[in-house]
Amino acid sequence: MxxxxxxxxMAVLNGKPEDIDRIPCVxxxxxxxxxxxxxxxxxxxAAHHDPLKMAKLGSAAHRLCGLDNVxxxxxxxxEAEIFGSxxxxxxxxxxxxxxxxxxxxxxSELVIPExxxxxxxxxxxxEAIRLLKEEFDGVVPVNAYMAPPFTSISSYxxxxxxxxxxxxxxxxxxxxxxxxxxxxxxEIANLYAEAGADVITLHEMxxxxxxxxxxxxxxxxxxxxxxxxxxxKTPTVLNICGSTMAILESMMDxxxxxxxxxxxxxxxxxxxxxxAKEPGYPIIGNIPAYDVIHTGPVERIGEAVDGxxxxxxxxxxxxxxxxxxxxxDNIGVFVDAVVKHGKA
Amino acid sequence: xxxxxxxxxxKKLIEAVDLGDEGLxxxxxxxxxxxxxxxxxxxxxxxxxxxxxxxxKYERKEYFLPDMLLSADAMYAGLNILxxxxxxxxxxxxxxxxLGVVEGDVHxxxxxxxxxxxxxxxxxxxxxGRDVPxxxxxxxxxxxxxxxxxxxxxxxxxxxxxxxxxxxxxxxxMKGKVRTIIGGGSVSEEWRERIGSDAYGKDATEAVSKIxxxxxxxxxxxxxxxxxxxxx
Lengths: 344, 232
Known about the structure:
The complex is a heterodimer.
Chain A: H1 5-13, H2 34-40, H3 51-65, E1 70-72, H4 78-82, E2 87-88, E3 98-99, H5 122-136, E4 142-146, H6 149-157, H7 160-169, H8 171-195, E5 199-203, H9 214-231, E6 236-240, H10 248-253, E7 258-261, H11 267-277, E8 283-287, H12 289-294, H13 298-311, E9 315-318, H14 328-341
Parallel strand pairs in A: 1-4, 4-5, 5-6, 6-7, 7-8, 8-9
Antiparallel strand pairs in A: 2-3
Chain B: H1 3-19, H2 22-34, H3 39-59, H4 65-82, E1 96-101, H5 109-120, E2 124-127, H6 134-144, E3 148-152, H7 160-171, E4 179-183, H8 189-195, E5 199-201, H9 204-231
Parallel strand pairs in B: 1-2, 1-3, 3-4, 4-5
Helix pairs in contact in B: 1-2, 1-3, 1-4, 2-4, 3-4, 4-5, 5-9, 6-7
C-alpha cells in the first residue's frame, strides 16, 4: 500500500524515515496564496475569523497541488492579540495582519486570559483544526503554527527596538514578559493538539542570528521553546527563517521533533553539524519561497528541490510562508518536483 | 590643543559608540566642546568612526541588532550635543534623503541605523517612519525636493510595496530624477533589478556608501549640464 501524506510526514517526525516511499513535501508555516483564496472563496481578512474559510484556505495547497500537509492559521498575531495588541486586519484588502501601534511597555500591562480557549482567535483556529481533522484524519497531517514567546513579544506585543535593547540593558524585563505569558502559549499549543493538530510548529522567525546573538538565543529563546516542547503532546517543528548555522545545536536542544530552516542556512553544512550531534535528526527546508517557488521557472524549482534533497533535507519545504502572489501552478510544480526527486 | 589630546577624545567617542554607552558618549561630546575640538571633526572622527566599527562587527557577526541599537543610541547622545554647535555653513546638508519602511511592515531597526549613519555623514534625512503608505514617499520627495528615496522591508510579503513606489514615480514622471535605493532582510539584488530601483544596499554600511554615490552622480550630472550650458 502506498503510504499516505500523513504516514510520510509522521514517520520522519517520529524518527522512522525508512518506512516511507518518498520524501514528504510540506509547508508548516502559512500556506495561503491569493490564488488559493480565489479558488475557495476564502479571502483575507475573512479567513482569519471564519473557521470554515480558514480550513478551506489551509487545505487548498493540498487539494490543488498535492502538498503533504494542511496548515492553519495564516498569521503571527493570534497570540499577541490575546495579550492586548490591537491588530489591523486591513479590511477590504489582502494584506498581512499587522500591529498599528505598540501600546504595551511593561509586563503588568499584558492581558493574561483566564480561559485561553475563548481568547481572541483561538476558538476560530481550534474549530478550523477540528474541521480539517474530521476530513483528513490519518490521511493528511494537520499542522498548526504559532508565534512562540520571543518572536511574538519582540515583534507583535512590544516595540521591537525597546525589546531588543532590553536583551542587554534589562534582561530581567525580557524574562518577565516571557514568564508572564509562557503558560498561555503552552495552553494554546495544547488546545490545538486536542482539537486534532498532528503537528505544532513553533515559528520563531525573530530569533535568527540575523537579529540576536547565539548567547542571547540560549538565554532568552531556548528556555521557553524547551518549556513548550516539554509540555506539548504532539510532535513539534521548530521553524526559524534567517541565518541559523551558529544556533543549530541550540535549536536541537529545544526538544522539537525536527527543525526547519530557510535558504540562509545552507543544508550541507547544517546536515554535518546536526549529524555530529544526533545522526539523522530531521531537517526541513529550504526552498526559497520567493526567489524560487514564486518566480520559477519550472526547471529552477526542480533544480532547487533536487539540490536540497541531495544536500540532505529529510522533508522538503519552502523556507517560510508561501508568497501571497505565487501562482498555483508553481506550487504544483514544487510538489511534483519532490515527488519526482524524493524517491527513497 | 595637542594632537594626542584630540586623538584621545576621538578614541573616547569611538569607544562610547562601540560599547553602546550613552553616558560616555555625552561626556566625550561635552569634553570635545569644552576643549574646542570642531564639532564636525568630533562627529566624523569620533561618533561616525565608532559606528563604522560597529557596522563592521555586525557584518562579521560579532555584533547583533541589540548591539547596533545601543550603539545608535550612544551615537545620538553625542550627536545631540555636538550638532547644534556646528557653524551654519558646515552644517549645510550634502543632500536630502526620504527614508522609510514600506507599507505593511513595522520592522524599522535597520532603517534607523541607516538614518544614524546618513545623519552623521552630513545628509539631511526625512524619516517617514514605518508602515509608510506608497503615495507618501512620492509626495514627500516632491515637496522636499529630495534626491533619494530609501526604502526598506524585513518581510517578504511587503516587497510589492517597493514596486508600487517605483510605479508611482514612473507615473509622476519622477523616475530618474529622484533616485531610489532599497534594502532590508528580504530584499535582494535580483529584486532591485526586477522593480528597476537604482541601488540595493545589503546592509547599512553599503546603503550609506551607495546613497553617497547616487547623490554624487546627481551633483556631477547637474554640474556637467551647467558647463554645457556655458559653452553653448
